[in-house]
Design a protein that fits this description.
372 residues; alpha/beta; 8-stranded parallel β-sheet; 3-stranded antiparallel β-sheet
């Protein structure tokens, strides 16, 4: 298989896992956070900067790259690695979440999904087979199966029908995946917030033998305690010898709570999205650096951070850049937020190695300002 999971140890306090994911483009230490590069770029970040902040793997979006510039063009450029000059691992999502979020612009059928481009309204049709063709062209180390992401809330019948369709589509994805030696296909567990459906989905997804598995359909509006509850009864159904990926999660509390429940991989647009709006994560909690109170604040955004922005610039200067609409402002806040999360994941791995992840979580929550 293109991707293999190496188990290192389990935290005695929590059951969290320390491991490595071996891919054609390098080894990923887990648990890990993947910055999101939707359109073959992590917004405001150059590849060398991503390496400097410690990114081991990035995620790109199949839907957006299909719409623009087109998967065949990317393939001609040598796949995503050649196109964007990134020599570390890449994961591509299937575009399922983006297609289903189009709402009135899409129509779900057993064969696939008909949708209209958000750019020009042109009609397109995604089938599991076509999504595999697109992802094979993009050439990522890890590619996600085409699934139906259920909304929250939804009723049991809707979730059941959606889960069954996702399972049928997963088998079609596996049957049509053409590059198994260089690209690993991951399946996605669905079932909304219904315990019986989640467990059934996990068992049947695992029965379709694959190199890794993801938990999808969470972080879509449900309360955090429900997400954690779903993880508690879903993750134990996933193989211990393969990577586990929680899709669309990137807040510090969710990363800690997910790792404690046995998740290895996370991704989210959150850190760069809030950064561009002038909000940063710090060791003492969120800080809205664009606020007037920081106009004459000449200390770093986070005095405990080792990122380029915090080592060189003050809150006052970064606030000035953001208020002036200068591109550098959003770049510096993005560098900081992504470095903050990479440092957090490194601390999580260290705490697992030392069998003290629950203690670390409690200490972090108190300092960050989360309710325990």
């Amino acid at each position: 298989m293109a991707v293999k999971y190496e188990f290192i140890k389990e935290c005695k306090q929590t059951g969290a896992r320390l491991g490595r994911v071996h891919t054609p483009h390098g080894i990923i230490d887990t648990p890990t956070f993947m910055p999101v590069g939707t359109q073959a770029t992590v917004k405001a970040m150059a590849p060398n900067e991503l390496k400097e902040i410690g990114a081991q793997i990035i995620l790109s979006n199949t839907y957006h790259l299909y719409i623009r510039p087109g998967h065949k063009l990317v393939e001609k450029a040598g796949g995503l690695h050649g196109f964007m000059n990134w020599d570390r691992p890449i994961l591509t999502d299937s575009g399922g979440f983006q297609v289903f979020s189009l709402n009135e612009l899409r129509k779900i059928k057993e064969e696939g999904v008909e949708f209209k481009s958000h750019l020009d309204g042109t009609k397109h049709f995604f089938t599991p087979e076509y999504v595999m063709e697109i992802e094979n062209s993009l050439g990522a180390d890890i590619m996600m199966a085409f699934d139906e992401c259920t909304p929250y809330p939804c009723d049991w019948d809707y979730a059941k029908n959606s889960m069954e369709r996702t399972l049928r589509w997963l088998q079609r994805c596996k049957d049509s995946h053409k590059n198994t030696e260089k690209q690993a296909l991951f399946g996605i567990v669905q079932g909304s917030t219904f315990k019986d459906l989640r467990i059934e989905s996990a068992k049947r997804t695992v029965d379709i033998e694959l190199p890794g598995y993801a938990v999808g359909g969470l972080s879509v509006g449900e309360p955090k305690d429900i997400m954690n509850e779903v993880l508690e009864y879903t993750v134990p159904e996933l193989p211990k010898h393969k990577p586990r990926y929680l899709m669309g999660v990137g807040s510090p509390d969710a990363l800690l709570d997910g790792a404690i429940r046995g998740i290895d991989m996370f991704d989210c647009v959150l850190p760069t999205r809030i950064a561009r709006n002038g909000t940063v994560m710090t060791s003492r909690g969120k800080l809205v650096v664009r606020n007037a109170e920081y106009a004459e604040d000449f200390i770093p955004m986070d005095e405990e951070c080792d990122c380029y922005a915090c080592k060189n610039f003050s809150r006052a200067y970064i606030r000035h850049l953001i208020k002036s609409g200068e591109i550098l402002g959003g770049r510096l806040t993005s560098i900081h937020n992504l470095r903050f999360l990479q440092n957090l994941m490194s601390d999580i791995r260290k705490a697992i190695a030392e069998d003290r992840l629950r203690d670390f979580r409690n200490e972090f929550f108190i300092k960050y300002g989360y309710n325990m």
